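Notebook B, p. 112. Complex prediction, attempt 2.
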Amino acid sequence: QSALTQPASVSGSPGQSITLSCTGTSSDVGYYNFVSWYQHHPGKAPKLIIYEVTKRPSGVSNRFSGSKSGNTASLTISGLLAEDEGDYYCCARAGSNTGVFGGGTKLTVL
Amino acid sequence: QVQLQESGPGLVKPSETLSLTCTVSGGSISYYYWSWIRQPPGKALEWIGHVYYSGTTGYNPSLQSRVTLSADTSKNEISLKLSSVTAADTAVYYCARDREAYQLLLAFDIWGQGTTVTVSS
């Protein structure tokens, strides 16, 4: 299985909305509704922000939302804040018993 | 609350076996799926595999021939063994818990702090 495809970098200004994409295949993102998103700051453990495509864990800001269309999942961050800067990874079920991460997107808040 | 702590040698020689343990405190490993995830320097996260508390496993196909995961309910620990390591296996290794009991969601809500493993002679 190949890594899911994410843009290497995205940038936005405070207050803006941005959308990060995560493209897979009909065998992973397109087949299962098991897509999760993680925010990762250097030196820290990744943080789960979206799971099962659209669900948000308690404590995660409602500025984060997830969606999926075909083989592409998306993470939208609205009302961008400086603290949102960091690396974002998607992860998807890639078979009955396997998973795969995306290559990650570095988000810069200008 | 549940906490995870990875432990093991920080330096492993090429061709040897990397062995790591994830100790779970504040809760039981029972009924959950546990994954190992790594991040090589400057690269993306990579899912290594998972183990259910009962011992059922699933592996990344690219690592399957070299990886063994196990769960020990008596010690409340998860273990990773990666054989025939090379410099490409140098990474920060994390253990993580899938958020809902009984289900493989690949939604990791609890992570260890990570442990750095360097493969070098």
